[in-house]
Amino acid sequence: MLIRLSIKNYALIRELDIEFGKSFSVITGETGAGKSIILGALSLILGQRIDNQSFSDNTAKCSIEGAFDISKCSLESYFDENDLDFDPVCIIRREITPQGKSRAFVNDTPVNLNQLKEITGKLVDVHSQHQTLLLQESAFQLSVVDSVAGCGPLLMQYKLAFKELNDLISKRAELLTKQKQSQSELDYLNFLFDELDKVRLVPGEQILAESEVEILSHAEEIKAKLYSAADLLLNRDENLLKQLNEVWNQLGAIAKYHTEIGDLSSRLKEVVFELKDIAETVDRLAENTSFDPARLEQLNERLSILYQFEQKHHVRSVEELIEIRDSIELKINGVTSLSESIEKLTREINSKAEKLNELSAKLTALRKKSLPLIESEVLKIVTQLGMKDARFSISISQLPTPGRNGNDAITFLFSANKGTPLNDLSKVASGGELSRLMLAVKSMISSSSLLPTIIFDEIDSGISGDVASKVGNILKKISEKMQVIVITHLPQIAGRSNEHFKVYKFIENEKTYSSIDRLNDDERIAELALMISGNPNLEAARETAKELLRNN
Questions:
Q1: Is the dihedral of CA 207, 212, 215, 216 positive or negative?
Q2: Quick check: helix, strand or coil at residue 243?
Q3: Closest CA to 264 of 280, 278, 283, 249
Q4: Terminal Cα-to-Cα distance of the chain (whole angstroms)
Q5: Alpha helices in 448-520 (DSSP H)
Q6: Distance CA 254, CA 484 (A)
Q7: Is the N end or the C end of the chain the one with fewer CB atoms within 10 Å?
Q8: What are phi and psi of 543, to 5 degrees?
Q9: Strand, coil or helix: what is 457?
Q10: Structure-model confidence comparison of residues 76 and 429, the more confident one
Q11: pLDDT tens digit string along 351-392?
């Protein structure tokens, strides 16, 4: 419920503050006094984009603030999910700088326009001449049926299942595309893998093979040099090892006389032992080294194969080839697993589609059940509003494929005159008829609507006299269930309200401003008399005004 509306520096409004009651309020005033300006300011805190409306003071910012009682709106979880501070009295503010930059706040927390629209969309329904055109749209007609039928919880289940189903379908489509792309290269991947797998790659084999080839390629030279070295170390009568032994013996004989000689003797002993080991190793290597043409050819062939694959795959080692082979195998396995994933998704899609069809059938049944009630209630109200020969019916048909709101297409059929066949509302209803139909619909759904506030602008378009009185009665009835604010030119409607506000213009310092006042009883009589006759002091008009208020 809208408790208070404050406007600063917007169009002709310098500053005003309005406090609204919880039931039925009307706003009246001469044409051009600023009623539409107030509604325009309100629309800004409801999330509408900024128009080209000028500021009252172009050097100061514009500020519109609304206080809403949301204590009975069950919005705590919504505020929590969106990281907003919850308070039973919610303050929504919109600020606009002279440069046109806009900021919005909910309880002093900044929000974007989409969030602002989402929040206020749960609080206020603005019924304007533009919205009357919505009555011709199938989506709005479906929402009316769902509201009366109480489809909300079931529709939420359906929408969740619909989203889940479409997410699964999208995911499967991606996998099918991926599979198609992968399938085209699967044969090539299998060829590459088989080719590398047959080579039987072994980590480190290339280094070992290259080393062995180096030895075998120079085997004769190596063997000759090793024999020559062994001969110098071991085999000659005056070989190096024998001579070193003699030196060691000579030093050992005198080591007891001189400490430094003893150290030299010990060092030489280690050299003799090390040289002896070297000599034996050289001799063994010489014996074991031999030229093996078959082995060399075998190794060269193996290296040739390895080099060929390394060149093909732009690498320089067997280890890198092994990595490539393993990655190809992973790709092949991935293509195979795609088929399994697609099959699993298909099973999930079929299961989800079955569940969706069940929910859709329940929605259809619930909607069909509500149609007679909607038809009778709308006809009852439009008859009261002067369309005695009107006929109204609702057609429900099945869509080719389920949509996000179910599998039903709703069409409102209408005839305003006797003998005229029922036809699509968009083809047969005039503006005035649409306005009265919309009022009938709003009246009917007000009991099932969770919105705490409804604002009517130009609901009196094209009506007068007794019909205007009946419109006032309907608005009064709606206000028993929710807060109703009406901008009107008709005294029959204004007289039914609990609170009456008047918008007016005044001039100050050669500048025109708009403002608004709440009228007391005497002021209401004068204003209603003015609306009736154009003269607030005309006694007959004042008596009529008093009669309107007595019947309130």
A1: negative
A2: helix
A3: 249
A4: 22
A5: 465-478, 491-494
A6: 128
A7: C
A8: -65, -40
A9: strand
A10: 76
A11: 999 999 999 999 999 999 999 999 999 999 888 888 888 899
**HSE-CB of 301 using CA atoms within 13 angstroms:** 7
Instruction: Give the whole-angstrom CA distance, residue 46 versus residue 5.
Output: 12
The overall average pLDDT reported for the chain is 87
pLDDT digits (tens, 9 = 90+) for 91-128: 999 999 888 888 999 999 999 999 999 899 888 888 77
Which residue's entry shows tokens 């991926």?
178
The kind and range of the H/E element at 414 are: strand 406-415
- CA atoms of 548 and 28, how far apart (whole Å): 16
Rounded to 5 degrees, what are φ and ψ at 156? -65, -45
Average pLDDT over residues 10-22: 91
Per-residue pLDDT of 37-50, as tens digits, reads: 888 889 899 988 88
Lowest mean pLDDT among 129-133, 195-199, 285-289: 129-133
Q: 3-state DSSP call for residue 326?
A: helix
User: CB-hemisphere CA count at 13 Å for 305?
Assistant: 14
* Residue 335 in this model has a pLDDT that exceeds 80: no
- The span from the CA of 349 to the CA of 353, in Å, is 6
Q: Is 489 exposed, middle or buried (0-12, 13-18, 19+ CB in 10 A)?
A: middle
Domains of the chain from N-terminus onward:
1-123+451-518 (3.40.50.300), 182-335 (no CATH)
Q: Percent of the chain, pLDDT > 70? A: 95
Q: Which two tokens stand for residue 19?
A: 């406090």
The pLDDT of residue 288? 77
How far is it, in rounded angstroms, from Cα 461 to Cα 478? 19
Residue 204 backbone zone (phi > 0: left; psi -120 to 50: alpha; other: beta): left
**Residues near 513 by Cβ (< 8 Å), separated by ≥ 6?**
12, 13, 14, 56, 505, 506, 507
pTM above 0.85, yes or no: no
Average pLDDT over residues 78-86: 89
Token pair for residue 464? 């007068």
422-426: which pairs have CB atoms within 8 A and are 24 or more residues apart? Answer: 422/391, 422/393, 425/135, 425/136, 425/141, 426/136
289: tokens are 């080294």
pLDDT at 274: 85
Whole-number Å distance between alpha carbons of 454 and 478 = 9
Asked if 460 and 468 count as a contact pair (C-beta separation under 8 A), the reply is yes
- Nearest-angstrom CA–CA distance, 286 and 151: 98
Give me the sheet containing 391-403, strands edge to edge: 391-403, 406-415, 423-424
Contacts of 418 (CB under 8 A, 6+ apart): 389
> Which two tokens mark 494?
């204004």
**What does the CA dihedral 240, 242, 244, 246 come to, rounded to 10 degrees?**
-150
Angle among Cα 420, 421, 423 to the nearest 5 degrees reads 120
Length of the chain: 552
**Cα–Cα distance list, 100 to 53, 61, 96, 173 (Å):** 10, 9, 6, 45
- Name the β-bridge partners of 163: none
